[in-house]
C-alpha cells in the first residue's frame, strides 16, 4: 500500500494535458481557457457618459443646449464654454465637454440650462478604456464563468480556445448489477456508482460515457474493455479487491496494463489501482459505493483538472472546527463523511463504505491523517467540500 500523496503523484504522471479546440463563445461556459485571449478593442471605446443629463462646456453655471448625444449616435460638433449637449447614459461625451450634470440637478428652460448644484470636473464621465484596453489579456488556464463570458464578449471575442474535454469510459463490473429501472433478481442490486461518477465527471468538464456492465468473467470484461474506443481515461468500478471474482487487475494486466500502483493506505478506497492501458490512462475504483465516490473526489477530480491543464493539485481542503469530538484514527488516511453547520463540522456516526444514504446527507469529507489521535470539539480538521468543483 502506498500513501495517498504518492498515489496522486503517480496519477499526475499518467495524466497528460490534452490538446485544445476553438469553440463559439456561447458554448464556452465552464470550459477551461487553453490560451490567453487578448481584447480586440478599448472599453469603453470613447469617453462615455455614466448618466442621463447634460455634457457641459466650461466651469460656469448657465449653458445653452446645442445638440444631443445618444448611445450609438454621437454629437459631432465641439462644445464651447457656456454650451451644453443633452446626453444619455452610454453616449459619447462630445469634444470640449469635461463634465456631465445629472438632469435631476439642472433647471431647463427652453434651450437654457442652469445648474442647481455644482458639478466637479470629469464628473459622470467614464474615460476611454477605463474598463480595459485593446491588448489586455484574460489569462489561461482558467475555468470560464458566466462573468468571464460577458467580459470576453465585450472584448469582441466570438470564438474561444479551450482545452478538449477528457473522454472518460465508465465500466461497472459485477454479476450482481442491474441498471436503474430494470427488474433485479433477488440476489441483485442496482448499479449506482457509475451514475454518481458520470455526474461528477460531467460537472468537472469531462465527457463521460457509460459502457455496458461487465460480468465477472474475463471474457465479458475483455469484451467491454474492447469498447473503450478513443477514451483518454478508462474507469472501472468494482472487482478491484482480492476476492475470487475480483478480476479487473488480472484481465487488465493480460490486456497490457502497465500498472503504476494497486492499493492505497486510505479508508475507504484501499483497493484503488491505476496504470496505462494502451493509449489511455486507467483507474480501477473499488466497488463499494462510498469508496468509488470518495476516490472520485480525491483522485479522479484532480486527474481531470490536470488533463484540462488546470495543474496537478490535490482536492482543495479547508480547515474547519469540529462540532463534536471524534475518536482516534487507525493506520490509513480516513475520509470521514460529515456535515458542516454553524458550530463546525459534525462527523456522522455511521461510516461504512456501503452507505449511500449517509454519503447523500454529507457535504464534507473530513480528512484524518494516519494515526491521528482522538480530537475534541473545537479542534481544527481538514475538510474536502463535496459540492465544490
Ligand atoms: N478479504 C478482503 N476483502 C475485502 C478487502 C480486503 O482487503 N480483503 N477490501 C475491502 C474493501 S476496502 C473494499 S472497498 C471492497 C472493494 O472490492 P471490489 O473493488 O472488489 O468491489 P466488489 O467486490 O466488486 O464490490 C464491493 C461492493 O460494492 C458493490 N458494487 C460494486 N459495483 C457497484 C456499482 N457499480 N454500483 C453499486 N454497487 C456496486 C458490490 O455489489 C459489493 O457490495 O472489498 C472489500 N473486501
Ligand atoms: O475502500 Mo474500502 O471501502 O476501504 O471500505
TrEMBL record:
One of its GO terms (biological process) is Mo-molybdopterin cofactor biosynthetic process. It catalyses: adenylyl-molybdopterin + molybdate = Mo-molybdopterin + AMP + H(+). Its cofactor is Mg(2+). Residues 169-306 form the MoaB/Mog domain. Catalyzes the insertion of molybdate into adenylated molybdopterin with the concomitant release of AMP. SMART domains: MoCF_biosynth. Belongs to the MoeA family. GO terms for cellular component: cytosol. Pfam families: MoCF_biosynth, MoeA_C, MoeA_N. This is Molybdopterin molybdenumtransferase. Its EC number is 2.10.1.1. GO terms for molecular function: metal ion binding; molybdopterin molybdotransferase activity. Pathway: Cofactor biosynthesis; molybdopterin biosynthesis. The lineage of its organism: Bacteria, Pseudomonadati, Pseudomonadota, Alphaproteobacteria, Rhodobacterales. PANTHER family: GEPHYRIN, MOLYBDOPTERIN BIOSYNTHESIS PROTEIN. InterPro entries: MoaB/Mog-like_dom_sf, MoaB/Mog_dom, MoeA-like, MoeA_C_domain_IV, MoeA_C_domain_IV_sf, MoeA_linker/N, MoeA_linker/N_sf. Keywords: Magnesium, Metal-binding, Molybdenum, Molybdenum cofactor biosynthesis, Transferase.
Amino acid at each position: 500500500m502506498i500513501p495517498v500523496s504518492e498515489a496522486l503523484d503517480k496519477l499526475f504522471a499518467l495524466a497528460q494535458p490534452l490538446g485544445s479546440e476553438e469553440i463559439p463563445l456561447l458554448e464556452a461556459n465552464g470550459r477551461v481557457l487553453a490560451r490567453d485571449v487578448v481584447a480586440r478593442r478599448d472599453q469603453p471605446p470613447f469617453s462615455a457618459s455614466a448618466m442621463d443629463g447634460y455634457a457641459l462646456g466650461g466651469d460656469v453655471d448657465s449653458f445653452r443646449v446645442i445638440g444631443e448625444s445618444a448611445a450609438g449616435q454621437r454629437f459631432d460638433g465641439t462644445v464651447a464654454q457656456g454650451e451644453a449637449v443633452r446626453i444619455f447614459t452610454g453616449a459619447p461625451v462630445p469634444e470640449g465637454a469635461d463634465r456631465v450634470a445629472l438632469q435631476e440637478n439642472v433647471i431647463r428652460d427652453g434651450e437654457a440650462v442652469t445648474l442647481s448644484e455644482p458639478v466637479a470636473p470629469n464628473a459622470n464621465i467614464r474615460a476611454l478604456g477605463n474598463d480595459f484596453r485593446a491588448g489586455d489579456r484574460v489569462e489561461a488556464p482558467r475555468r470560464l464563468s458566466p462573468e468571464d463570458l460577458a467580459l470576453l464578449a465585450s472584448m469582441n471575442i466570438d470564438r474561444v480556445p479551450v482545452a478538449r474535454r477528457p473522454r472518460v469510459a465508465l465500466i461497472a463490473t459485477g454479476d450482481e448489477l442491474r441498471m436503474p429501472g430494470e427488474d433485479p433478481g433477488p440476489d441483485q442490486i442496482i448499479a449506482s456508482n457509475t451514475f454518481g461518477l458520470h455526474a461528477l465527471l460531467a460537472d468537472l468538464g469531462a465527457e463521460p460515457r457509460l459502457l455496458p456492465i461487465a460480468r465477472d468473467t474475463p471474457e465479458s470484461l475483455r469484451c467491454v474493455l474492447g469498447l473503450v474506443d478513443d477514451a483518454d481515461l478508462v474507469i472501472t468500478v468494482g472487482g478491484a479487491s482480492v476476492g475470487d471474482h475480483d478480476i479487473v487487475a488480472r484481465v487488465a494486466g493480460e490486456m497490457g496494463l502497465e500498472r503504476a500502483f494497486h492499493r492505497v493506505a486510505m479508508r475507504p478506497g484501499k483497493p484503488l489501482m491505476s496504470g496505462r492501458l494502451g493509449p489511455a490512462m486507467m483507474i480501477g475504483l473499488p466497488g463499494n459505493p462510498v469508496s468509488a465516490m470518495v476516490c472520485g473526489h480525491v483522485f479522479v477530480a484532480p486527474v481531470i483538472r490536470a488533463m484540462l491543464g488546470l495543474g496537478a493539485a490535490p482536492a482543495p481542503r479547508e480547515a474547519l472546527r469540529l462540532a463534536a469530538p471524534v475518536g482516534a484514527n487507525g493506520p490509513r488516511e480516513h475520509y470521514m463523511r460529515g456535515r458542516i453547520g454553524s458550530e463546525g463540522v459534525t462527523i456522522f456516526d455511521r461510516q461504512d463504505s456501503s452507505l449511500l444514504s449517509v454519503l447523500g446527507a454529507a457535504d464534507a469529507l473530513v480528512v484524518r491523517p494516519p494515526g491521528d489521535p482522538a480530537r475534541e470539539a473545537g479542534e481544527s480538521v481538514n475538510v474536502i467540500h463535496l459540492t465544490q468543483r
